[in-house]
Amino acid sequence: MNAPTDRDLILRARRGDTEAYGNLVARHQTGVFNICYRILHNRADAEDLAQETFIRALDRLHTFDFEREFSPWIRRVAANLCLNHLEAHKPSASLDEERDEDKTPSPGEQVEVKERSEQIRSALASLPPHYRVVVELRHYQELSYDEIAHELNIPLSDVKSHLFRARKLLAEKLHAPD
Predict the structure, then answer these.
(1) List of residues 6+ apart from 3 with CB closer than 8 A
(2) Which domain holds residue 40?
(3) What's the confidence (pLDDT) of residue 91?
(4) What are phi and psi of 41, to 5 degrees?
(5) What's residue 92's pLDDT?
(6) Does an H or E element contain 35, and which?
(7) What is the pLDDT of residues 52-98, one digit of tens each?
């Protein structure tokens, strides 16, 4: 038997089938967590907001439009929650150390990769939230400009200008003399 589609699970969840919603959560939880983590740069906050995303989504499941895909919809809920969180709590640059781990055998290369990774993460963390979100969606989630505009409900021109300005700021921060 084929696995149920997102649409099937949503219909069942709307009728009160908690197992169906649990399957929907299991199917999308990694992607939602990844978006939250890349925007917030804090594992605990990302876990909390990923959970909050699914609570919000369940509460609003009756508004879901079946003409659309569930995955972009749930990612948009997550991105919006993260932006609201950042606005309410000034952005923090605390980052998990485990993302710095590198399996390269050469100690010199390990130090270099770790330093570069830290520079990139610090530069990303310093971006305004609306720039950070478009960078996340474009470069980590690999969405097209049109998909980003649709997910964030902003004009395509804003997506392009946000990405342009974010990349410019990142380049300035990464190439600034030490």
Answers:
(1) none
(2) 1-94
(3) 41
(4) 60, 35
(5) 43
(6) helix 18-40
(7) 999 999 989 988 889 889 998 998 899 889 888 887 875 444 444 44
pTM above 0.85, yes or no: no
Residue type for position 149: A
Structural domain contains residue 5? yes
- Rounded distance, CA 92 to CA 90, Å? 6
What proportions of the chain, in percent to the nearest 5, are helix, strand and coil? 75, 0, 25
Number of compact structural domains in the chain: 1
Conformation bin of residue 3: beta by default, left when phi > 0, alpha when psi is -120 to 50: beta
- For residue 139, count CB atoms less than 10 angstroms from its CB and return exposed for 0-12, middle for 13-18, buried for 19 or more: middle
Q: Say how many C-beta atoms besides its own lie within 10 A of residue 124's C-beta.
A: 24
Q: Report yes or no on 30 lying in a domain.
A: yes
Q: Would 173 be classed as within a structural domain? A: no
Q: Indicate whether 103 belongs to any domain.
A: no
HSE-up of residue 97 (Cα within 13 Å, Cβ side): 0
Give the integer Cα–Cα distance in Å for 94 and 43.
Answer: 9
41/105 Cα distance (integer angstroms)? 27
